[in-house]
Amino acid sequence: MKGVLFGIIASVAYGTNPLFSLPLYDEGMNPDSVLFYRFAFASLLLGVLLISKGESLKITKKEVFPLFVFGVIFSLSSLFLFQSFLYMDAGIASTILFIYPVLVAVIMTLFFKEKASFLTFGCIALSLVGIALLYKGDGQTALSNKGLILVAFSALAYSLYIIGVGHSSLRTMSIGKMTFWVIFFGMFVFIVRTKLLIELQFIPSYRAGLNLLGVAIIPTVISILFINIAVKYIGSTSTAIIGALEPVTALLIGVLVFQEQITARIILGVLLILIAVTLVVAGKPLMNDIHKRIAHRNQRFRRLV
Question: What pTM was estimated for this model as a whole?
């Protein structure tokens, strides 16, 4: 129950991204400036927290390059998602983003020769139907094509990040240290962009400063730390299933706080996506358990014969 509770807190915390980012947009801040401050504040807070716990942040020369690459990929995922908020409702964008487990399954099948089941392909089809339902969210106006493309790139980048970390030599590094350096190196993407492409904006108000601290603490630091605790108690599979609360939280915030529209079509599309992703995450362990049970019964039957 402790692991489930921490998993719920982590998922709900990550789903609060729109709660802090949309008011910053209303004050005239652009996504790059918001994300620069988010990554800067988050890395500072997480670094202070880890050092206070006595954990060393020292890394070797061989670890710098993969950490930098992971930081860039992770920051691009955040950038695409936050840019999509400018073109579509944040709740719907966060829901479509949650197709990343399906993308992971596809990439693992195509490039890492992982066997794909009919369940995997069925879930991919189900998620595409869900996205098609969300495409005309209010039944009248189609969602922005640019917004959909941005969310798709965000989901793809996050999928590549998960696969890269899972297959890298950094798996033995402590999660806290790796997370700190990923966030720290990810910040450089926005330093470059604000130097060359977009002007870095100053924090416009006291309220904006509080929202920037909020987006750095709640959906970043708190979410990551509680996810780590949940994985320790209940495992990655169960934690990922509970992660379905992330887009649900974002959708509820969009409806209750920002008066975004919700219809029966949106509800159905959300449910199909969440069902598809949950089956992808939980389906493999379930099928493995079924195969083990069948094999065990076959062995017992052979012994009786």
Answer: 0.79
